[in-house]
Structures are given as C-alpha cells and as structure tokens.
Amino acid sequence: MRTKSIFSRLFLFFLLFTIIMITVLWMVQVKLLPQYYQQEKVKILEDYAKEVEKAIGKDEWNDTSREVLEDVSARINGRIAILDREGNMLYHEGMMGQFRGTRIPSEEWQTVLSGKTASYQASGTRGNLEFLVVVAPGEQYIYLIQIHFQTIEEAIAIARGFYIYLLGIGLIVALLLAAFFSRKLINPLVKLNDIAKEMAEFNFKVKWEEDRQDEIGQLGETLNFLTDRLQSTIGELEKELAKEKNLEKMRKEFVSRVSHELQTPISVISGYIEALQDGIATSEEEQEAYFKIIEMETHKMSRLVREMLDLGQLESGTFKVNIEGFNYGDLINKTLCKFEIMKKEKDLIVEIKGNGYNCMVLGDEHRIEQVLTNLLQNAVNHTNHGGHIKIITKNEGTKVWTGIYNDGERIAQEEIPYIWESFYKGEKEKGGTGLGLAIVKNVLELHGSSYGVENTDKGVCFYFDIKKQN
Q1: What are the strands of the beta sheet with 129-137, ordered from one edge?
Q2: pTM surpassing 0.85?
Q3: Does 168 map to a domain?
C-alpha cells in the first residue's frame, strides 16, 4: 500500500481545516447576517430619530424642522412620521408613496410608551413583507421611521457577494500558506531523515547544521550527538575487535610457545637421563655436568608453571593482596641480589638513584617484589653486553614513583598497547614467556597503582607508583 508523505498529510489537513472554517463562517453569515444587519439598521434609524427630535426641540413646526425632516428622509431613502402620545400622526415626510405601518401593534406600542425603541415589519399591498418600521420615543413626540426591505436585502446581497470574494481570496491565500508552512516544516525533517540514512550506511560525516531553537533543532542536535557517540563507539568496537583478534592470535602462539618451551627442556632432560642410563657419561665430572643441565631445565619448567599459576590467580578476580608497611630500599636490594650472576655475565652497570629509596611504603611485599623482579628481568633481557640499567625512585608526597630504565632497542609504538596483555611477546622479544608484564599489570592494579612505559632517547623506561606509609 502506498504511504502518503507528511507533506501531503499536512497540506490536506490545512486544506480541510480551511474548508471547514470557510463553511462554518458562510453558514454563520447566512444565518446571522440579516438579523445583525437589521439590528444595526434599527440603531442607525434610532439615531436619525434623535437627530429629528433635536432639530424640532420644544418649538413648534418651522422651516428648519421641515428641512431636517426632508434631509433625513432623503438620506434613509424612507419616510418619517411624527406621532403624538395618542398615536395620531402630526406630520410625515418621505418618498415611498403611501405611508404604511402606521397602525403600531399593541405590544410594540407599549414598548414605546415605556421609553424604549421598538421595531417591526410591515406588509406591502401584496401582503408580503416590504417595510421595516422603527418607532422611537422622544420627549414630546414619537418618531416613526419606515424604510423599504429591498434596501436591506440589497445591502445584504452586496455584503454576501463581497464576502464570497473575500472567502475565495482567503482560500487561495490559505492554500499557499498551507503549502509554504508544510514545506517549511517538512524540509528539516527530510534533512534529518537523510542524515539518519547516512548513519545507517556508517557515514558519520553528515551533520545537522541548522540553528533552530525548537523541537526539530533539539532533534537535530540529538542526532549529531548520537552520530558522534556511534562513531566513537564503532571506532572503539573496531579497536576492541582488532585487539581480540590479536589476543586470540597471541593465545594460540602462546600455546605453541609454551608447548615448545616445555618440549625443549623435557627433551633435554629425557636425552640426558637416557645418556646417564646408557652409561655414556663415564666420568664423575661428565655426570655432574649432566645433572646440572637437568636441574637447569627443571628450573625453567618450574618457572613457567609458576608464572602461569600466578597469572591465573591474579586474573581470576578473587585474589587478595596482603597490604602492610615495609622498607622499600631493603626490598630493592633484596631483588637486585637475584641478578648478580646475570649482571656479571653481561657486564651490566646497575645504578640506584633518587630520593624515594629509603621510604616506608604500603603494599603486598611479596607481590611488589614480583613486580620489581619481572621488570628487572625484562631490563636485563633487553640490555646488550656492557649496557646500563637504572632504578630511579622519587618521593612524591603520598606516593613513591619508581622507574626502571635500560639501554637498548626501543619498543615499537604499535606494540606498546599490547605489551601488558597476557601471552604477548614482541617480534624482538629475547627469551621469556610473555607473562611477566601481564603479572606486573595485574599486581599493580590490585594495589591501585598507576603504571606505564615510555621510550627514551637511548632505551626504554618502565614506571609505576606505590603508596607511602604515613
């Protein structure tokens, strides 16, 4: 079924409303105009009677009185009669031939005697209503004024003809205004509809630009707001989708990497155990070397499993940290001791700088140690032989800021948003399982700490803060 446009509906509504109003007005004037016109005519004739009375005054008839009567009679195109209180005609003047209607009905006569003006209709020679008679009381006389009905009917006919002319013009003007205002109202709605269609096609560049203070303007502003929100939300969803795809890829890579990481030490351990069983290692020194290799590979597997268990606990949402006060400098020294052998092997220079070193801080000491361990391990892994590592601490009032800097290659800018995710390892990653920074992130978030990473001129700096103990 074909739907009508809002423009056609509005136009038809205005048209129907105009037709109804014109019809009502026409019916009202047909019904009430003759009566209204007659009432107004009676008032005018009453005024003429007062004019005649004023001319006569208390004097007897004179030429001036007669001239006034003739003048008024000519102006009303009717006849005027002057009666005494008994109803006898004293004088009359007019141009309509025989004076009719001088026999005043008793009801109207009583009205006149009470001091009020009365009017009635008188019949002509053929019995039809031909005259309007107005009887107005004066101080001395009673004034009877008679005009022909034809005069009234002609005036009403002229008024109706003019009214029809006005209604015709009014109808045309109403139609033009209806078309204009309908179009003026519809045009912005059409624009809003076009914007909505563009939004459906994911084109968010089209905006509502009109400056209106009405409901349509508010709708346009709301549509602009919705466009911006949708654009922002879709952009975020696209980023999240890309992130999820990348994360899923990382998970698969992690499973492969973990399998490889486990398979390698298992294969090594299995191979050396078989060698020991087969008696390949004959000397005590060779056997001891085999056992050390087996022990080292076992530690690798243990570390991998431990990190996976830690991350699972931290990401479960149920893990609770044990917050207590401890000396931050002591914890840093304790953590550095783990890296003495690696520091000597790579000939690294490690410095501790800043004024937050000996502060008392609040946190889970074991987990903060884990954060320092993972960040330092990351720094050692990415620092070349003979490189430089700095541990910088700053006392910032209620918090201690810590930055761990290392020389070496910078992190690619596109990788920075993902390095904190579980299982992630960059293309240039040197060792590790991709779990260390994910553990750092989860521990610091449980402490309500801020954290981040930034590339420097010659390397990378990971940083975080921790609350001070009052």
Answers
A1: 89-94, 78-83, 142-148, 129-137, 118-123
A2: no
A3: no
